[in-house]
Write a structure and sequence with these properties.
By secondary structure, the chain is of the alpha+beta class. Helix content is 23%, strand content 38%. Among the domains are: 41 residues; 82 residues, no CATH class. The relative contact order is 0.06.
């Protein structure tokens, strides 16, 4: 009996030691977590997609691979006609209302014939419209254009409907009626296009560095150029694209 009591007393002492050690470890762990302010630090993470959301779960940014990239959203719902996801690796931004408003995407590959194509694009969209400011690199087997673009989008309150109508019209068989419909959509007001590139700063496939300023119809009216041989020119153009004045002449 006495031996059993001694044995029980030893077990109790051992349990007290274990309890003390466990409590100490929990306290240290809690202090360590508190000292990091609840933030986890990782040296490396491998994922296919990251969704950045607001407190209410609303999507603000998606970082993803190609197959898990999101489709175009307008007020949190897919645009019509739908452009399915799975084609834009990179980052897509969404505004306070769940509408896509820019992103950073990139691709690059070589096909079976050995021809390559590469694309890099960083854009910001006008409110409830398409992109108006973007950096773009496009290279189709050596046919390259790289630069900064500033576009002018005429405000369309019903832009998704305008876009859907334009997509439907594009699919019609070629005819004078189709051309007239496309012209009406692209020029809703006489002398003002629905969308026009107003500024381009970059270089073209002839390796000419340039600054091009265009009118509201997207017609280049003033260009500064330095070609691949280092020759500099300043060119003024009319609405039909004819040179009206240049330096040097």
């Amino acid at each position: 009996m006495e031996e059993r009591l001694i044995k029980m007393e030893k077990e109790l002492r051992r349990l007290r030691r274990y309890s003390f050690i466990l409590t100490l470890l929990l306290i240290i762990g809690g202090l360590f977590a508190f000292s990091r302010s609840g933030a986890d630090r990782w040296k490396e993470i491998t994922v296919e997609r990251i969704n950045v959301v607001e407190d209410n779960g609303q999507l603000r940014m998606v970082i993803s691979n190609k197959s898990r990239s999101p489709e175009n959203l307008f007020y949190g719902k897919p645009l019509t006609p739908r452009i399915p996801g799975g084609s834009r690796p990179g980052m897509i931004f969404f505004n306070d209302e769940g509408t896509e408003n820019g992103g950073l995407v990139f691709t690059g590959s070589t096909d079976s014939s050995g021809k390559y194509k590469a694309f890099g694009h960083f854009s910001f969209d006008q409110y409830n419209q398409n992109q108006v400011l973007y950096l773009s690199y496009q290279d189709i087997n050596g046919d390259q254009q790289t630069g900064l673009h500033v576009d002018d989008w005429q405000t369309h309150p019903a832009w998704p409907e305008w876009r859907a109508e334009y997509k439907r019209t594009q699919k019609l068989p070629d005819s004078p009626e189709k051309e007239a419909l496309l012209k009406k959509l692209m020029e809703p007001q006489e002398g003002v296009k629905a969308v026009a590139q107003r500024v381009f700063v970059g270089k073209d496939d002839s390796k000419t560095a340039m600054v091009t300023l265009s009118d509201r119809m997207g017609k280049p009216r003033l260009q500064m150029q330095v070609d691949s041989n280092g020759t500099a020119r300043l060119i003024f153009l009319d609405q039909q694209g004819n040179v009206t004045y240049s330096l040097p002449k």
